[in-house]
Structures are given as structure tokens and as C-alpha cells.
């Protein structure tokens, strides 16, 4: 949505002030609007710049650049309304917060030459503050659980190391709970209590977790419904 309230300034003509429209470019088209505002439970995110240099100082060009699936929240929609009860589910993020989302989530939109993406609230894996994703600044939303999983390298009988990305085994589905979301909304708009807490060890469904790297460590973001047991 384009907010027309911020669409113009004013200037004097014959002593009277007249509106002057200040267009913005959305996907290359000039629109007489002052701001792009998401609808429903969508979030407008300014995408983080692609990584152009490795930690060792090697410059990356073209397709070799690492495109991050994270960015800064610019604005949020009013929230999703339950179709039967009419309860409005508040948005779990606010403008200025950082978010990490799935690789294939979101719809890209170009605003004044800057890349943005529109994602749903459920697409958010982790949110963070302070402009940098760290374990201290990270948090999960709704009924999400951040689990630290073991992803050690293994060795064959001949002593050849097999990296975690080249193994044909199933992804780890056991780990330690690090962060817990506030809970998912019930149909009446009230939050449902979470059944795990930081420090618990959990077993979750195979392939249920979404991988997130934080400070060089591998974590999985798992929904409460996919957790099978705690111990």
C-alpha cells in the first residue's frame, strides 16, 4: 500500500500554499506516494547488503557474493485477523529491529533503487536488536524455539573428514533449548503457554528445524508443534 498522507509537500502560489506531490519509485515506476505500507501480516524489510569479502579478505564478485536472508524492519502491517473469531494477532516485530528469514521466503520490491522484501510474520526465524545478530541480541517469535544442535565433522574408517554439508545422514534433531518464544495465539487472541524453557534438551521431528548460524554456531529454529519430547 502507498500512504498518500505523506505524498506531498507544499509551496506558495499567489500567497496560497499548494500541494506538490513527491513521488517515490516502486519497482521502477514513479508513484505519487510517500511510503510503502504493508497490509495484513506482512513486513517490509530493507535487505542487508550481500557479503562481498570473505573473512580472509578475498573479494567476491558476481554470483559468488553471499546474499544474506536478513535485513532491517522498515514497517509492519496491522496484523492478521482470525477469519472466524475476528481476533487480531499483534505483529511480533517492530520497525528498526533486525530479522532473519528463510532463503525462499519473501517477495522482492525495489523502493527508490534500494532492495527490500515483503515477508509474512511467520517467515521470521529470528529477530535481533543492535544492528548485529548475536546470541544475546537474538530472540524468537510466537511458538518458535531456538535449539543449539551438534553438527560436528565425522571421519570415515580411513580417517577422511566428512563435512556436515556433504553427509547423506539426516540432520540432527536433538539439542539444547537456548531461546523460547512467548507463545502462539489461540483462536480467541490469547497466547498459548510454551511447554519448554531454556536449558531443556529436546527431540524434534526430522527436517522440521530451519538452520540459522549465530556467531559461527549452528542453531535450529523449531516450532513447538514439531517438538516430540523434552528431557
Layout of strands and helices, then pairs:
Blueprint: E1 2-3, E2 8-13, E3 16-21, E4 24-26, E5 29-31, E6 35-36, E7 42-47, E8 70-76, E9 80-81, E10 88-89, E11 98-101, E12 107-111, E13 114-120, E14 124-128, E15 138-139, E16 144-149, E17 154-155, E18 161-162, E19 174-180, E20 201-204, E21 210-214, E22 217-223, E23 227-230
Antiparallel strand pairs: 1-6, 2-3, 4-5, 7-8, 7-13, 8-11, 9-10, 11-14, 12-13, 14-15, 16-19, 16-22, 17-18, 19-20, 20-23, 21-22
Please summarize what this structure is.
The protein is built from no helices and 23 strands. By secondary structure, the chain is mainly β. The strands form seven sheets. It has a seven-stranded antiparallel β-sheet with strand order 12-13-7-8-11-14-15, with no helix packed on it. A six-stranded antiparallel β-sheet has the order 21-22-16-19-20-23, with no helix packed on it. Strands 1-6 form a two-stranded antiparallel sheet.
Comma- or semicolon-separated keywords:
231 residues; mainly beta; seven-stranded antiparallel β-sheet; six-stranded antiparallel β-sheet
Task: Name the strands of the widest sheet in spatial order.
Answer: 12-13-7-8-11-14-15
**Helical/strand content category:** mainly beta
Distance between the termini: 47 Å
Q: N-to-C SSE series?
A: EEEEEEEEEEEEEEEEEEEEEEE
Structure description:
The chain has 231 residues and is mainly β. 0% of the residues lie in helices and 43% in strands. It is built from no helices and 23 strands. It has strands at 2-3, 8-13, 16-21, 24-26, 29-31, 35-36, 42-47, 70-76, 80-81, 88-89, 98-101, 107-111, 114-120, 124-128, 138-139, 144-149, 154-155, 161-162, 174-180, 201-204, 210-214, 217-223, 227-230. Strands 12-13-7-8-11-14-15 form a seven-stranded antiparallel sheet, with no helix packed on it. The protein has a six-stranded antiparallel sheet with strand order 21-22-16-19-20-23, with no helix packed on it. A two-stranded antiparallel ribbon has the order 1-6. Residues 4-13, 16-21 and 56-66 have low confidence and may be disordered.
Amino acid at each position: 500500500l502507498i500512504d498518500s498522507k505523506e505524498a506531498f509537500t507544499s509551496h506558495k502560489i499567489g500567497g496560497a500554499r499548494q500541494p506538490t506531490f513527491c513521488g517515490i519509485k516502486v519497482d521502477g515506476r514513479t508513484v505519487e506516494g510517500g511510503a510503502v505500507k504493508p497490509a495484513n501480516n506482512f513486513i517490509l524489510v530493507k535487505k542487508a547488503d550481500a557479503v562481498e569479502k570473505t573473512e580472509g579478505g578475498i573479494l567476491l564478485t558476481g554470483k559468488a557474493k553471499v546474499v544474506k536472508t536478513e535485513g532491517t524492519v522498515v514497517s509492519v502491517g496491522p496484523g492478521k485477523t482470525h477469519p472466524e473469531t475476528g481476533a487480531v494477532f499483534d505483529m511480533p516485530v517492530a520497525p528498526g529491529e533486525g530479522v532473519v528469514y528463510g532463503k525462499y521466503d519473501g517477495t522482492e520490491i525495489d523502493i527508490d533503487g534500494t532492495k527490500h522484501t515483503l515477508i509474512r510474520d511467520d517467515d521470521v526465524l529470528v529477530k535481533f536488536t543492535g544492528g548485529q545478530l548475536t546470541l544475546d541480541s537474538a530472540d524468537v517469535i510466537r511458538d518458535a524455539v531456538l535449539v543449539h544442535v551438534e553438527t560436528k565433522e565425522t571421519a570415515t574408517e580411513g580417517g577422511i573428514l566428512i563435512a556436515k554439508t556433504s553427509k547423506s545422514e539426516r540432520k540432527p534433531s536433538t539439542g539444547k533449548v537456548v531461546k523460547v518464544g512467548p507463545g502462539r495465539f489461540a483462536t480467541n487472541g490469547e497466547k498459548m503457554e510454551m511447554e519448554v524453557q531454556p536449558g531443556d534438551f529436546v527431540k524434534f521431528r526430522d527436517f522440521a528445524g530451519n538452520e540459522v548460524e549465530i556467531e559461527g554456531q549452528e542453531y535450529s529454529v523449531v516450532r513447538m508443534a514439531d517438538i516430540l519430547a523434552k528431557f
